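REQUEST ID: PR-0412
SUBMITTED BY: lab tech R.K.
PRIORITY: routine
TASK: structure prediction, single protein chain
INPUT:
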Amino acid sequence: NLFRSAWLALISGPNESTTLSLGEKPVYLGGGDDDVYIAGLPQHAVRVVATRGVIQCDQLVGKGPTFLKAGSEIRLGNVKVVVRTS
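STATUS: complete
OUTPUT:
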């Protein structure tokens, strides 16, 4: 993680947070067998990938990809997902 350039900060409460590094391997957030389990969501509800400095978010329900940048926020149930970059 020392050389990571992009990561997700997952905030679920005042003193509850964790981080997850982004890269070319997709990160899945959802209610199934995902990298991050969020109750009430379907499996693979959100996919986030960082390729060549571009952070792309695809949602199971939505139109096309969303491109994220440092500080972008996504609310998924009771979890706030914030994009961080170095």
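NOTES: The chain has a mean pLDDT of 91.
REVIEWED BY: pending
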